[in-house]
Design brief:
The chain contains 3 helices and 2 strands. A two-stranded antiparallel ribbon has the order 1-2. Helix 2 runs antiparallel to helix 3. The protein is rod-shaped, with a radius of gyration of 62 Å. The protein starts with a helix and ends with a helix.
């Protein structure tokens, strides 16, 4: 048990010795006892702390500058991308507008062609009607002339036949007027 106590005491002193701090030499003055190295080391520590703080602040400022420049570059890239997209959209709209204009012109030309074709058919129909009406008028006149030369018609029947002939002549003249207006319309459309 004594040996244990001795070993523990040695271990305790060894630990105290191992963990003991070094003390600064003390200058004895008649007025007071002041440690010599303590204020010098505190000033050095303060200077080093200020230097480290200045370096940290400088690094922080540099990091902030780098972040801001990266943000500016990113903003510029986004703006140029937006400008490119807008330009692309403008070009697309211009293309679509040109396509619509071409389609509109094509439709207009087709519509004009249909109008001209319709007017041309109208002129042809009127020509056919005039031909038929003139043939019928010639038949009516020849029939009337035959009947008058034979003397089979009375005055009333003669007047009726003359009235039919004059109606047919009016019909032919009206068709000829319609033909002239249709031809004018056709000429106007062809211009």
């Amino acid at each position: 048990m004594k040996t244990r106590l001795v070993v523990c005491a040695l271990a305790f002193f060894g630990m105290q010795f191992g963990y003991a701090q070094e003390t600064a030499p003390v200058v004895k003055d008649s007025v007071a006892v002041v440690p010599v190295l303590a204020p010098v080391s505190q000033e050095m520590l303060n200077k080093e702390a200020f230097k480290e703080q200045a370096k940290a602040e400088k690094a922080l400022k540099q990091a902030e500058k780098d972040r801001k420049s990266a943000q500016r570059e990113q903003d510029r890239a986004e703006k140029s991308l937006k400008r490119a997209e807008k330009a692309k959209q403008r070009e697309q709209k211009a293309r679509e507008k040109a396509i619509k204009a071409r389609e509109k012109e094509i439709k207009k030309a087709e519509k004009e062609a249909k109008r001209i074709e319709k007017a041309d058919r109208s002129v042809e129909k009127l020509n056919d009607k005039i031909d038929k009406a003139e043939k019928q008028l010639d038949k009516m006149k020849s029939k009337l002339d035959k009947s008058v030369s034979r003397g089979k018609l009375s005055d009333v029947e003669l007047q009726k036949e003359n009235l039919k002939v004059s109606k047919q002549e009016l019909k032919v003249s009206k068709l000829e007027e319609d033909l002239r207006s249709a031809q004018q319309k056709l000429e106007k459309l062809k211009r």
